[in-house]
C-alpha cells in the first residue's frame, strides 16, 4: 500500500497536494503580518487554520537558522500546535547523532538534569551551538513525554561513507542508512556555492565530490531516521537547518526516494521593508516580526581553526584580526589548558570560550616547538 496521502487543498489553498510556496512579487501594503502563514499564491492562513491539516502528514520538517532565537521559538510554538492535534508524535533532531539516543531517552524520561544531559549527549562536540537555544524545545518534549529522536550520524561516519564508499563500511555500522539518491542539478549547484565560500577549500575536484557526497549522506541519514519513525505510526516532526529542506531538495528529496511522500516543509520568514519574499521555496512560511533587538549577543570567538591532538587541541589556522592573532597564537600551537582546565578535545575549548565574559582575559597554556608557555587571550568589551 502506498504511504502517500493527498493533502486537502481546500484548507491550504495549495493548488495541488505538493505545491510549493513560490517567490511572489508582493507589495509592502499586501505583506502578511507576524503570526500568519503564507502558502502558494500568496494566500495567508492562521495557525489554527493550518495545523489540523499539517498534523495529518507523516512527516513535518521545520527549518531553522541554527543561531536564531526567534526560529527556535517558532519551532516550539509549531510543535505545541501540532501536538495539540496529534499527541502521538516524535520530534527528530539534526543536532545529535545516533550515538546520543540513550541520552535523549533518559532526558525525556526525566532521569537527567541539564548538565548531565549535555555531558552524556556530548552536545558541545556533536553540535556546538548554544544549547540554551534548544532547551525550551527539549523541556517541552520532556514535559509531554514526547520521544526525541537523534537524526544525525557522526562526521566520521559521513566521511567514511563519502570517501571509502558504502561497501567499505560494514552494514551494522551504517544504522540502516542506504546510498542516497543523487543530487538534483539545482541542489548540486547550491552545494558547490557553499563549498566555494570556504577559503580553506582547495581546487581539487575530488575534494568537491567528497564534500557533496558527505552532504548527501547527511540528508539520507536524517531521511532514513524520519522514515523509520513514521513507519511506526506517529507524526514525526524534524528540526534541521533550512538548507536541508529548502526547495524540496535535501531531506525531502531523500524521503521521496525512500517512498515516503507525505511530508511537508515549513520555514520561518522575516519580511523586509519591501516584503520581498525569499528565493527558496517551502510548503508554507510562518511570518515573524523583527526580533533582532532580542537576539542574544554574538558568542565570544577566539578566532582559530582547531583539531584533535594527542596532547590537547591543535591550532590549525588563525583568523586575521582575531583575539587569537592579538594574543600571539600561531598555527601549529597545541593548547594544553584553558582557564586552568585540561583540553582533551576541541569541544573542551569551545565550551570554555563560550563561557568567557566580554572584556576579560583567558589564560591559555600552549606547547610550541616542544616547550610550554602561557599566552593571554583578551576578549573585547561588550559593544556599547
Automatic annotation (TrEMBL):
Keywords recorded for this protein, A-Z: Signal
The lineage's top-level taxon is: Bacteria
Any Pfam family from its record, for instance, is PDZ_2
List the InterPro entries: Cofac_haem-bd_dom (IPR007314), PDZ (IPR001478), PDZ_sf (IPR036034)
- Signal peptide as annotated in the record: 1-28
Residue span, PDZ domain: 291-370
Q: What is this protein called?
A: Putative iron-regulated protein
Q: What is the protein's species of origin?
A: Halomonas ventosae
Amino acid at each position: 500500500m502506498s504511504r502517500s496521502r493527498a493533502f486537502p487543498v481546500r484548507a491550504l489553498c495549495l493548488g495541488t497536494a505538493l505545491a510549493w510556496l513560490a517567490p511572489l512579487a508582493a507589495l509592502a501594503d499586501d505583506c502578511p503580518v507576524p503570526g500568519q502563514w503564507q502558502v502558494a499564491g500568496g494566500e495567508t492562513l492562521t495557525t489554527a487554520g493550518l495545523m489540523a491539516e499539517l498534523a495529518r502528514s507523516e512527516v513535518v520538517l521545520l527549518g531553522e537558522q541554527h543561531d536564531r532565537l526567534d526560529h527556535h521559538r517558532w519551532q516550539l510554538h509549531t510543535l505545541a500546535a501540532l501536538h495539540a492535534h496529534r499527541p502521538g508524535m516524535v520530534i527528530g533532531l539534526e543536532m545529535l547523532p545516533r550515538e546520543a539516543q540513550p541520552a535523549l531517552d533518559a532526558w525525556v524520561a526525566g532521569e537527567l538534569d541539564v548538565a548531565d544531559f549535555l555531558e552524556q549527549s556530548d552536545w558541545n562536540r556533536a553540535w556546538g551551538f548554544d544549547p540554551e537555544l534548544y532547551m525550551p524545545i527539549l523541556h517541552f518534549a520532556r514535559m509531554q513525554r514526547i520521544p526525541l529522536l537523534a537524526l544525525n550520524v557522526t562526521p566520521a561516519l559521513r566521511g567514511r561513507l563519502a570517501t571509502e564508499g558504502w561497501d567499505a563500511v560494514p552494514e551494522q555500522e551504517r544504522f540502516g542508512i542506504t546510498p542516497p539518491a543523487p543530487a538534483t542539478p539545482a541542489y548540486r549547484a547550491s552545494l558547490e556555492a557553499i563549498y566555494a565560500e570556504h577559503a580553506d577549500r582547495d581546487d581539487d575536484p575530488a575534494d568537491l565530490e567528497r564534500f557533496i557526497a558527505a552532504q548527501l549522506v547527511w540528508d539520507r541519514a536524517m531521511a532514513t531516521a524520519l522514515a523509520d519513525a513514521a513507519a511506526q505510526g506517529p507524526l514525526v516532526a524534524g528540526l534541521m537547518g533550512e538548507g536541508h529542506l529548502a526547495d524540496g531538495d535535501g531531506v525531502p528529496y531523500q524521503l521521496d526516494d525512500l517512498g515516503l511522500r507525505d511530508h511537508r516543509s515549513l520555514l520561518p520568514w522575516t519580511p523586509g521593508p519591501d516584503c520581498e519574499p525569499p528565493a527558496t521555496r517551502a510548503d508554507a512560511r510562518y511570518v515573524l516580526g523583527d526580533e533582532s533587538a532580542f537576539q542574544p549577543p554574538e558568542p565570544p570567538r577566539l578566532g582559530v581553526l582547531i583539531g584533535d591532538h594527542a596532547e590537547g587541541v591543535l591550532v590549525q589556522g588563525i583568523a586575521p584580526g582575531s583575539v587569537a592573532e592579538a594574543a600571539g597564537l600561531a598555527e601549529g600551537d597545541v593548547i594544553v589548558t584553558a582557564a586552568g582546565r585540561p583540553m582533551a578535545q576541541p569541544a573542551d575549548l569551545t565550551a570554555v570560550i563560550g563561557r568567557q565574559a566580554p572584556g576579560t582575559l583567558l589564560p591559555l597554556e600552549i606547547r610550541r616547538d616542544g616547550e610550554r608557555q602561557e599566552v593571554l587571550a583578551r576578549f573585547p568589551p561588550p559593544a556599547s
